[in-house]
Design brief:
alpha/beta, Rossmann fold, 3 domains, 7-stranded parallel β-sheet, 25 helices, about 15% strand, globular, binds 2-phosphoglycolic acid
């Protein structure tokens, strides 16, 4: 098989950055250069702007350039891509509000020069209002630089699948997946507007320069399809292939599904490191649908891997070596098997019992991602602590709070002191006052947090954990923030470091690597890394193994797995029962990329079952389900 030419494969110029922040600094520098050049020529700069988590760090860098390096926006005009239909500019989730908070209020932009589509235009006015928006862009001289994010549907702006390259600013219906992705912002999918006004694909393509930004593994598939697939209405971002000056600036996680990253051996000669060899052979086995031990020389040669054979010898030697490595990832003893030979086990036998600390960005991540493993750790008598880093209170609907209020009232009815009634009444009044989309008060958030605690306890009991083993950290960044706008602070790191030093864990389970940097798991992971750095000189850290789980909502790929913990049918059932204790999360939990999920609670079980099927197909033993972990070294 001859190598694939990347320049033919990637039809959009793509720059991969180690981190989102580095990409944002680079794009902000280009914007600044454009503004300064236009200022010198006494010309206005027209920027096309986006909302969502993605551009937040870019806006923070532009604000920094304004404050520290004198970048002026006095001669800048902006046009935002889109706005929810039916929301006024003061609504906390309106894109006008978002832009004011994230950029406009912090730089010297003239308010009359900022444009966001009018979400309040009536049905009669809306066509005319959209035409006026197009005309205003033309009158301003057209867009110099357009910033884009990308949705998991492949949308740019709110141009959902089905949007053609000729489309212009208009009223559109939002895709189901887009609405589910916004469900957390609006405290429930049912509250997410059904329609929006968006610039068209054609409007975007008219910009002179386009930067599309994407961070995190959740965007990896749609990014790869946009860059390598054919231009298609199914993925509107793919029409950017027809733009003559468009660059995708993405982080490594978002780039991970590009052919040159995922299957580099198909693209040209590679260095066959042990890691890459493992990845390639596992891929080969899945591609030709043969278990590892049945792969033959022709399979290698026909799939771009003949140089591996030349370098390493016979197919059978490669097969058996990888078979053994994969076999050794499987263990029913996630805390190590005491008094057993541990030379080929993922976790060491001693010390026993271990102090195992499981960190969860939110309640439910524990049972959802490692319910079976936790059950085993508890049964195998390790000292387990589950620490919920955030309260998760933003993910509880008002309806669930009303139910709790009624419960408190009912219980207190026959008691003399009736202390709880006062609190419940207060929260009820606050709920009534805030209306459907208002900000939650501290008391409302507390009660929502308590509801999640009770669900976490109920689920932990099923996993065999004592409720004293649970630690509710309520990290401040979350308590003070809201989705897509969180900012972590010193006290978060201090609190995390204190917990680590108190417990001095022998093993630590955590998640968040490779997620969108503004997501709760990613922020929690960064806080953990900072806290670990502060414990650098502590004795316990030298003997602490860190195991990453990948979820919620996704699993490690086979080549990334260092520990695979099988679940028996009973354990699997128990895990599902544990997930069901999180009743308020029924409509909030993560959804499978691109698919309409019947019931997102089933996702965890689908993933664990799929891993078991994959292991089976490689020629390993056949299990009901498997949970997976990757070793992380600081
Ligand atoms: P996100 O959204 O930045 O919040 O991921 C991107 C988009 O939908 O365009």
């Amino acid at each position: 098989m001859s190598p694939i030419d990347v320049s033919n494969l990637e039809k959009i110029s793509t720059e991969i950055f180690a981190e989102a922040d580095t990409a944002c600094v680079a794009v902000a520098a280009n914007i600044a250069e454009c503004i300064r050049l236009n200022d010198t020529n006494k010309q206005t700069t027209v920027l096309g702007l986006a909302t969502g988590s993605t551009p937040v760090r870019l806006y923070r860098e532009l604000i920094r350039l304004h404050r520290e390096e004198g970048l002026s926006f006095a001669n800048v005009t902006t046009f935002n891509l889109d706005e929810y239909y039916g929301l006024n500019g003061d609504h906390p989730e309106s894109y006008r509000r978002f832009m004011q908070d994230q950029l406009f209020d912090h730089v010297d932009l003239k308010s009359e020069n900022t444009h966001v589509p009018n979400g309040l235009a009536t049905r009669d006015e809306v066509i005319q209002s959209c035409q006026a928006y197009e005309q205003a862009i033309i009158d301003a001289g057209g867009i110099d630089i357009q910033i884009l994010g990308i949705g998991r549907t492949g949308h740019i702006g709110f141009n959902e699948p089905g949007s053609g390259p000729e489309s212009r600013t208009r009223l559109v219906t939002l895709d189901g997946l887009t609405r589910r992705d916004a469900a957390r912002d609006f405290l429930g999918e049912e509250n997410v507007p059904r329609h929006a006004i968006t610039m068209g694909v054609g409007t975007i393509l008219d910009a002179r320069k386009v930067y599309l930004l994407a961070w995190g593994e959740a965007k990896a598939s749609v990014v790869a399809e946009s860059i390598e697939g054919e231009p298609t209405e199914t993925i509107p971002a793919s029409f950017l292939q027809t733009h003559r000056d468009c660059v995708f600036c993405i982080d490594e996680a978002a780039a991970s599904r590009l052919t040159r990253i995922r299957y580099p051996w198909l693209v040209g000669p590679v260095e066959w490191t042990p890691e890459r060899t493992r990845k390639a052979i596992l891929w080969l086995s899945q591609k030709v649908q043969k278990p590892l031990l049945k792969l033959i020389e022709e399979d290698y040669a026909e799939n771009g891997m003949s140089d591996l054979l030349t370098e390493k010898g016979f197919a059978y030697d490669l097969n058996i070596e990888l078979f053994n490595t994969t076999q050794h990832t499987i263990t029913g003893w996630p805390g190590g098997k005491p008094r057993a030979d541990d030379s080929n086990r993922p976790e060491r036998a001693d010390p026993f019992p271990k102090r195992s600390l499981v960190l969860c960005p939110e309640p439910m991540d524990d049972v959802y991602c490692l319910g079976g493993t936790l059950h085993r750790l508890a049964n195998q008598e390790h000292e387990v602590t589950v620490a919920y880093q955030t309260s998760g209170n933003l993910a509880v609907s008002d309806n669930d709070v009303r139910r709790a209020i009624e419960l408190i009232m009912e219980v207190e009815q026959d008691r003399e002191d009736r202390e709880g009634v006062g609190f419940a009444r207060k929260v009820e009044q606050q709920l009534n006052a805030k209306g459907q989309f208002g900000e939650d008060t501290v008391e409302i958030r507390h009660l929502k947090g308590f509801i999640r605690r009770s669900e976490a306890r109920s689920s932990a009991r099923l996993l065999g954990l004592k409720t004293e083993a649970l630690c509710f950290m309520d990290l401040p960044f979350y308590e003070k923030g809201r989705y897509r706008r969180f900012k972590s602070e010193e006290s978060d790191i201090e609190q995390m470091a204190e917990l680590l030093n108190n417990i001095q864990p022998h093993q630590l389970f955590a998640t968040g690597l490779g997620h969108d940097p503004l997501s709760v798991p990613a922020i929690c992971f960064q806080i953990l890394l900072n806290a670990l750095a502060r414990c650098e000189d502590k004795k316990w850290i030298k003997d602490c193994h860190i195991w990453l789980y990948r979820g919620p909502g996704s699993e490690w790929e086979t080549h990334e797995i260092d520990m695979a913990v099988p679940l028996s049918p009973d354990e699997f059932e128990n895990k599902i029962r544990g997930i069901y204790q999180h009743q308020t999360q029924r409509s909030q939990s993560p959804s499978v990329s691109g698919k309409r999920d019947r019931n997102s609670w089933n996702l965890a079980s689908d993933l664990n079952r799929a891993t078991a099927v994959t292991y089976d197909a490689l020629g390993m033993a056949e299990y009901e389900a498997i949970e997976t972990f990757k070793r992380f070294k600081i």
